[in-house]
Amino acid sequence: MRSTGRIVDMRAHHANRLHSSMPVQRAVADASFAYDTAVVGLGYVGLPTALALHDSGLRVLGLDVSEARIADIRAGRADLLAADRQRLASALTTGPDDGSFVLTSEAGRLPEAETVLVCVPTPIDEHLAPDLTALRAACRTAVEHAVPGQTLVLTSTTYVGCTRDLLVGPLRERGFEVGVDIFVAFAPERIDPGNDRHVQQQVPRVVGGVTSECVKRTAALLEHCAGSVHAVSSVEAAEMTKLYENTFRAVNISMANEFADISRGLGLDITEVITAAATKPYGFMPFFPGPGVGGHCIPCDPHYLLWQLRGDRVSSPLIETAMTLVAGRPTKVVQRAVEVLAERETCIVGARVLIRGVAYKPGVADVRESPALEIIERLRRAGARVWFTDELVDTVRVAGVELTSVVEPGSTDWDLVIVHTVHPGADVSWLSAVPAVLDTTYRLGELTHRSVL
Fold first, then answer.
1. Same domain, 241 and 315
2. Which CATH number do you get for residue 312?
3. How far does Cα 325 stand from its chain's mean position?
4. Mean pLDDT of 355-360
5. What are the residues whose beta carbons fall under 8 Å from the beta carbon of 269, sequence distance 6 or more?
6. Contact between residue 152 and residue 50 where contact means Cβ atoms under 8 Å apart
């Protein structure tokens, strides 16, 4: 470990100088930073990234504006894979003492890090337009505290041109020359929450820089937590790569849902059909139907592209149709629930309905954009009495009403159970005694009395 006393003083000197009106020095500063990297935003992307970098031997400064989030991390309450939980325990044991892993809410410490990774959420608002509030704030903070010799890397999914708008332009306004005394790149995150089959240390990362030196410096860092690094010609190419990845998924999920509807009409098992098609070793990738899509990526990312295209008066009918169909899937779940109840001569009004799992995908405690929330709200509007059960989610708030997870779902007589999410290892044997089950996962073929969406 390097001595940090002189380093901190040097960083503070740079910060004070750059916050004044004096011009930026045209030479790369002494590379003796207290931390190899600072990770801005310690959510589902930032925290695993910080842990992977620390596990590789780097000195990491974790920054989050939420003191509550930092407290949860320190208490080990973060939603992580088992391997990352072990890394967190190790980092919290030794990191604060040797200075190799430090958590803070003080943005003024960013000048202590050689590289700054921006890993904040990029959701959409109620009008399906990008909500850049967190991203603008994080980038503004990174720029305000930037010092010569640093590399700033944006990892949050966003529109094409955002890196130049929020980092490159503001840095030039401060007097920096990007590629000479400061370096900027875009390297979209590739983390699959709850899935230990695709750990980030084995997944390639795409990097696009303002200059070749920007790419080189960013790649040198990300090689510590990625299977490999694939460089592209520009930050814009990297931004579009991420949009293409998740739009591809949205379009194919929409098609899988449509084929599921067609197959039910023809009396076919869509899961059997997709599994059979997946035996083809080329030209096919399996996507499975479900109750809709949730989380941080698929329901949001394509709208960043659509929003930008609308501003340029460019039409994209395939993507627009796919996103419309994806958004309408929870409504179809409720319509199907009404049909299943009617087949048993039960009215939706007053029916006792249980949602099995409200997390947006198996293995996570995340309910962001979860279709289950809209399903619950629409069922309640239709007059149903609705409960949920989920081992990983204690409470959810829907339309101002807080619901608490049912601990023993098998002890109640339900008119209908809608299977939305089944976590790995979850016991769903009690479903065999439920008179009506709507399986929106298409995975419970052993339940002979189930209905599918």
1. yes
2. 1.10.1040.10
3. 21
4. 98
5. 263, 445
6. no
Burial of 318 (0-12, 13-18, 19+ CB in 10 A): exposed
Residues β-bridged to residue 91: none
Do the Cβ atoms of 117 and 46 come closer than 8 Å? yes
Domain count across the chain: 3
Let me know whether 339 and 357 are in one domain. yes
To which residue do tokens 């973060």 refer? Answer: 78
Give Cβ neighbours of residue 421 (< 8 Å, ≥ 6 apart): 356, 357, 358, 359, 360, 361, 362, 372, 390, 441
Marked catalytic residue, from 139, 214, 225, 297 = 297
My answer on whether 280 and 179 are in the same domain is no
CATH number at residue 30: 3.40.50.720
The pLDDT tens digits of the residues spanning 211-228 come to: 999 999 999 999 999 999
In the residue annotation, 119 being an active-site residue is answered as no
Kindly report the length of the chain: 453
Q: If phi over 0 gives left and psi between -120 and 50 gives alpha, with beta otherwise, what is residue 205?
A: beta
Locus of tokens 């900027």: 184
Label residue 196 by pLDDT band (50, 70, 90).
confident
Query: Which residues does residue 416 pair with via DSSP β-bridges, in sequence order?
Result: 353
360 shares its domain with 372: yes
Structure confidence at residue 123 as a pLDDT band (50, 70, 90): very high
* Residue in this structure with the two tokens 């959510």, named with its chain if needed: 43
Q: What is the pLDDT of residues 329-355, one digit of tens each?
A: 999 999 999 999 999 999 999 999 999
pTM: 0.88
| Predicted local confidence at residue 6, as pLDDT | 28
Count of CB atoms within 10 A of residue 85's CB?
Answer: 14
pLDDT digits (tens, 9 = 90+) for 421-444: 999 999 999 999 999 999 999 999
Q: Which one, of 412, 411, 417, lies nearest residue 384 by Cα?
A: 417
16 — pLDDT class (breaks 50, 70, 90)? very low
Cα–Cα distance, 372 to 369 (Å, whole number): 9
